[in-house]
Amino acid sequence: MLSQLPLPLLPAGAAEIAPGVGFLAAEQGGLVTVHGLATFAWDAGDEAARRLAAVQLVRLRAASQGQVAAAFGADPATIWRWDQALTAGGVAGLVPARRGPKGASKLTPGLAARIAELDAAGQTLRQIAAATGVSTFSVRSALGRVASRERPALAATAAGDGDAGEGAAVPVLPDPVRRDAERALARRGLLGEGAGPVFTPGARYPLAGLLLALPALADTGLLDAARQVYGQLRDGFYGMGATLLTLVFLALAGEPRAEGSTRVPPAALGRVLGLDRAPEVKTIRRKLAELAAAGKAAELIMALARRHAAARPDALGFLYVDGHARVYSGTRTVQKTHVARLKFPAPATMETWVTDCRGDPVFMVVAEPSDSLAGELRRLLPQLRGIVGQGRPVTVCFDRGGWSPALFADITAAGFGLLTWRKGPAPDLPADAFTTVTCTDDRGREHQYDLADTIAELAINEGPRKGQTVSLRQVTRRVPAKAGAIRQIHALTSRDDLTAGEVCWRMSSRWREENYFRYARTRFALDALDSYAAAPDDPDRMVPNPDRKTAAARIRQAEAAARAAETARDAAMLQLRSPAPGQAAYLSNQVINALAAPVEAAWRELDDADQAAATVPARVPLGTLTPDMVRLDAETKQITHAIRMAAYNAETTLARALDGHYARAGDEAYALIREALADSGDICPAPGELLIRLDPLTAPRRTAALAALCNQLSQARACYPGTDLVLRYEVKPHPGIA
Q1: Main-chain phi, psi angles of 410, to 5 degrees
Q2: What percent of the chain has pLDDT over 90?
Q3: Are residues 285 and 202 in the same domain?
């Protein structure tokens, strides 16, 4: 007996499955060590010895049943069944039984030759099966007509040394490359930037269609921007690239939240990542928390915005800016704000989004609580100039929430154009000022408007420019209203070079940004609570004083009471001055004073209300009202926004690439892309190349459109992230089509 336990050393390449217990798997077999001593070993193919080692580890209590199951690639129930088999039949009970048919095959060479003769004679499969006494499936097998999906075991690798060339058959869902050694290094912090992608040639991989997004994702610059801003993550098996690709693939697969990884098989997602399995919920949350701790989410979004501006310069002539309320449904105290789509105030976090002229997101910022869209626009002007570059003419479009003549002057002084709706009452123009205008939008569609083009002078009542005026062009449109009436709506712009028709449809195109919000809420979890963390709000932050509403309500009540008292007094005086025939009326000072007393009391109440309201401050520190107010974690949310913006822009790029290749692209482009991204296919690595051969889609016309898209993506010659493998795409022909 040893006087003390040996040191818990592990052999090179072994993984620790329990304290002091090492597990080493290799092509020659396996080895289990306990406190540095070799305890169990088995040769390759000796399944009984392998199962015996697993059962003995549990019986010796060197490791738990779950730990052993994870190491041996089984589940705890399987380890329990092995234990029962060992108890019932000894080591012989652990020998795996033969699978499949127990007897000899009926399809002998002689019978196969007979089947070929009958087929050459023109007999049908059923006639041949009846004549030979075998099934029609055996007849098809003998004739070589069984598809790979019907006999996956027959789809053996045709190209040697793992080189699956064009047209070569590959195994269906082969086991991924074991990454035990890299996981062991990662556990000790010795792996560096994470495990690199390694692909195994295989057919019918689920989710292989997600690889279609990689060329478009490279154009967004997400991975490059993340490395530029964050550097690299802490040493671990999943590095920056694998983590971001996982989140992008989850978003494109319809599961954008970390919890969505529970509904996507880790092994299936791992195959398209080039790993043995994808990270799961706990790991994804930990990686996001690590990125959030750096506090650089705003830098990441701005880096993506600059990449967007460089890649799509033609889309930045008009930028649409709007606020978005992300509703909070939890139990913490979060400041309420008006939610337009709900039409009532609710706890929410306000965000300010900027999209290009097509409605694609460029960047976003978390708005300050209680700040208006006008205040956010003024704060964003320097960032917008930094993105588009100095001297570049850009028009900022926004709705009535940004109405402020002082802001209009600031926008034009900063070198931007502006386009917005007019807010508040404005005089209607005469009918003879309107003419019918026809214009064509950027999608080739014609629009017809009834417009008038005038000039509006707006007074500035705030800020350092108070007392000045700003002159803007006003384009007024007549539209039908209820009950056959005609309503006039006014758009204001500083652009004199635009036609009146273009001003009108550019302003109407602001709904493209709203369409993005709606699509992103549905498909990309725009309003999801990606982090449950919260921080106390600033108690010294000045917020609107609710007592002002109470004071204003008291003034309104006093005014109504004064008007009612005056009405009652006047009615009584009129009756006294004009009595009915035959009745006498006497007016004396006492009677007049009695009638005037309620009016005087009402006016005194109104004066008191006015004086009391004057003493109520408009804003008070937040801590005096709701000291437990919190702000939701914005850092993690901005990171997930950046990732999902890149995923959305990549999906949109693929959808627009279908123009000219799919007759219903205007209506079904996104639906087709979602189907293609969920498609299965073959992944065939070769020297310097990664071939993705996708399975056909649900209809021949969709398959043809996907084939045209694959040709475009192959010409981009993008590389799989983290490798020098050039991506090439193909589509298998649709059944029945040459």
Answers
A1: -65, -40
A2: 56
A3: yes
Residue 314 lies in a domain: no
User: Which tokens belong to 415?
Assistant: 């070198």
Percent pLDDT > 70 in the chain is: 93
CA-closest candidate to residue 312, choices 381, 378, 221: 221
How many whole angstroms separate alpha carbon 642 and alpha carbon 226? 10
Distance CA 144, CA 118 (A): 15
H/E stretch holding 217 = helix 214-220
Domain identity same for 607 and 691: no
Helix (H, G, I), strand (E, B) or coil at 710: helix
462 CB burial (10 A radius; 0-12, 13-18, 19+)? exposed
CA angle 478, 481, 487 (to 5 degrees): 35
Question: What value, to the nearest 5°, has the Cα angle with vertex 567 and ends 563 and 570?
Answer: 135
Give the number of other CB atoms < 10 A from CB of residue 20.
Answer: 19
List, as one string, the DSSP characters of 18-63. ETTEEEEEETTEEEEEETTEEEEEEETT-HHHHHHHHHHHHHTTSS
State the angle between helix axes of 136-143 and 125-132 in degrees (0 to 180), rounded to the nearest 10: 100
d(CA 230, CA 240): 9
| Domain end among 587, 616, 645 | 616
Tell whether 475 is covered by a domain: no
Cα separation, 278 vs 264, whole angstroms: 9
Residues 285 and 204 in one domain: yes
Domain count, the chain: 3
DSSP helix/strand/coil, 453: strand
317 three-class SS: coil
CB 673 within 8 A of CB 281: no
Burial class of residue 168, CB neighbours in 10 A (0-12, 13-18, 19+) = middle
Which one-letter DSSP state was computed for residue 725?
A: P
Judge whether 39 lies within some domain.
Answer: yes
Q: Give the residue numbers spanning the domain of 712.
A: 180-294+657-731
* Mean pLDDT score, 178-183: 87
Residue 146 pLDDT > 90: no
pLDDT in tens, 485-495: 889 999 999 99
Of 160 and 182, more confident: 182
Split at pLDDT 50, 70, 90, the class of 7 is low
Query: Which of helix, strand or coil describes residue 396?
Result: strand
Cα(573)–Cα(592) distance, rounded to whole angstroms? 8
Report the C-alpha gap between 61 and 55 in whole angstroms.
10
162 touches 685 (CB < 8 A): yes
Structural contact between residues 707 and 714, judged by C-beta atoms closer than 8 angstroms: no
**668 & 591 share domain:** no
Q: What is the mean pLDDT of the chain?
A: 88
Give residue-wise pLDDT tens across range 69-92.
888 888 888 888 888 888 888 888
Distance between CA atoms of residues 299 and 301, nearest Å: 5
Q: Do 669 and 607 share a domain, yes or no?
A: no
Same domain as 252, residue 189: yes
**Which of 370, 297, 330 lies closest to 636, judged by CA?**
297
**Spatial distance between the Cα atoms of 631 and 428, rounded to a whole number of angstroms:** 45
- 627-668, pLDDT tens digit by residue? 999 999 999 999 999 999 999 999 999 999 999 999 989 889
DSSP secondary structure code for residue 210 in this structure: G
In a domain? residue 709: yes
Confirm if 728 and 714 have CB atoms less than 8 A apart.
Answer: yes
